[in-house]
Design brief:
By secondary structure, the protein is α+β, with helices and mostly antiparallel strands. It has nine helices and seven strands.
């Protein structure tokens, strides 16, 4: 929540800075013209209802799914639909451009505010790794990785990643988990985070060699939420999930690669623009890929942490 407050405060500061700069320009102009009868009206700096829209913008990024990605284009379209709107843009081009630049800068900086520690169930023990050098530096994130060693003679190896990550596009919880996973998939952002997991998987598998640089994720068309229930843990939640085939592009001649495992992602969100993601990587042949595809026990442990 604190990160979201800092994020919002930065947007307010951006608006105040532009108003202050316009006030200074107003004072200089008045001094040149030796005019003192005109009073500076801060509400007109961004044109009619401009300041009100900016205030509404800051509120709506706490409420609207996809946040900035929906509100900003919609506001821009509405502001130029009418001839009066286009005239207002011509009259207030400088302060509007300035506030857009400052607010984008504050969104970028606000998305670097620290995140909480990833969920770490006691039953999993200490994470094998607490950093991921392959993770993007923006937005802010933190990642823990566990290697669940296989049973003797079995392929029930699991690599688990618990991630806390800032959501730059929205600060509310409504649709945040779903929108964030959709955006990550669209932009291929999950690929870099899997680099570390692929290296661990390659170390553990003796029958195949996996090159992290030649791996691909193929979405599995399936349900987008799954209900996880445990009366013992007091959990009954519909959790946003995504499933992917893990494909090696260096095995075989198929351009789409050869399936070597599956990846399950589960995500929950919290107010203030933070996402908690659980990533479970299981190799082909893992018994749970047919009997427990949604990793019930692991996800319930993670949700209860």
């Amino acid at each position: 929540m604190l990160g979201g407050i800092i994020y919002s405060a930065g947007l307010v500061v951006a608006i105040i800075v532009v108003i202050f700069l316009q006030y200074r320009e107003f004072v200089k102009q008045q001094a040149k013209e030796e005019e003192t009868s005109i009073i500076f009206n801060y509400r007109e700096v961004f044109g009619p209802m401009g300041l009100e829209f900016l205030g509404l913008f800051i509120i709506l990024i706490w409420i609207v799914p996809y946040g900035v990605l929906i509100i900003a284009p919609l506001g821009l379209i509405l502001s130029v639909l009418s001839p009066a709107g286009r005239i207002t843009w011509a009259q207030t081009k400088v302060p509007r451009t300035m506030v857009c630049v400052f607010m984008i800068s504050m969104i970028m900086l606000g998305s670097l505010s620290p995140v909480s520690q990833p969920k770490s169930p006691d039953s999993w023990g200490n994470p094998l790794l607490t950093e991921n050098p392959n993770a993007p530096i923006w937005p802010a994130s933190q990642q823990y990785t566990w290697l669940m060693a296989p049973s003797v003679g079995e392929l029930d190896l699991e690599i688990i990643q618990s991630i806390s990550i800032r959501t730059p596009h929205q600060l509310g919880v409504y649709g945040s988990a779903s929108s964030s996973l959709n955006l990550a998939s669209l932009m291929g952002l999950e690929q870099s985070r899997l680099h570390q997991a692929i290296e661990l998987l390659d170390d553990e598998l003796s029958f195949v060699r996996l090159n992290p640089e030649e791996m691909a994720l193929a979405p599995i068309p399936n349900q987008e939420t799954h209900r996880y229930v445990s009366s013992t843990l007091g959990i009954d939640e519909d959790i946003v999930i995504r499933q992917y085939e893990l494909r090696s592009l260096s095995i075989g001649s198929n351009e789409e690669g050869v399936k070597v495992g599956e990846v399950l992602c589960a995500a929950t969100s919290s107010w203030g623009g933070e996402l908690q993601i659980l990533v479970i990587i299981r190799p082909l042949g893992h018994p749970d890929l047919t009997t427990n595809r949604y990793a019930e026990e692991l996800v319930l442990d993670w949700l209860s942490a």
